[in-house]
Amino acid sequence: LISIVALAMSTDVSFAWKHLAFGPQQAPCEGAVVWLHGFGDEPEGWASNLRGARAKHPHWKWVHLKGRLLSQTCYKGQKVPGWGDYLDEGCTHIGSADYDNQDIVLDSTLTEIHRVIEELEEKDGVPVDRIIVGGFSMGAAAAAEGALRYPRRLAGLVMLNGWLLPGARAALGSELVESLPVLVSHGSADEQVGFDCGEMAAELLREAGAAVRFEVQLGLTHVDSGFGPGRDLAVAFLEEVLCAPIGGEKT
What we know:
By secondary structure, the protein is an alpha/beta fold. The protein is built from 7 helices and 10 strands.
């Protein structure tokens, strides 16, 4: 059986951050996935959705980050699990308030993503170039912030139905983005994060030199796209990158 461990990844923030960690079921640990869920969700949703991938890859460690209950401007201060503060409850499009709202991913969220990556390297012995950060929706925006603004090059980035915030867009000038494997997947009928957001993310990443795979789910909405074909594409991408020989080239 695959054990589920609910843990605080460091004692000083145990009151705020309690993530789900899995594996590795077999030594050595050959890779790691850091995953961020969407707005209003919990890590258990994606942990269940990726159960098959975990069983197939017992040498990987998975950390499903758990968002905190945060006050949301769009809900007049009501607290919802997430990575930052939404201004508008409508669909996010290029030019909308939340497309350029850096507070969608708070500095504390970015710090925690980076701390988890560092702990994977220091405590689990996973090199940073064997760690992929990914997420869905608001979690995809957070994953992009975490990966693109990390001071060292990671193995890759997965963005399901998300967008690039100003911090991530500013980081595209870094040489660390060159040839970085990235999966951008989006439903063309996404009613929560507009398809234009995914298109622009893929375009900007390509222009920055990243090795981008842009996948479109024609006619699919936000959840159907992300939890269906998006999930399958993400698993295939993880396998392609993390199953490459250690020290060898990654495609």
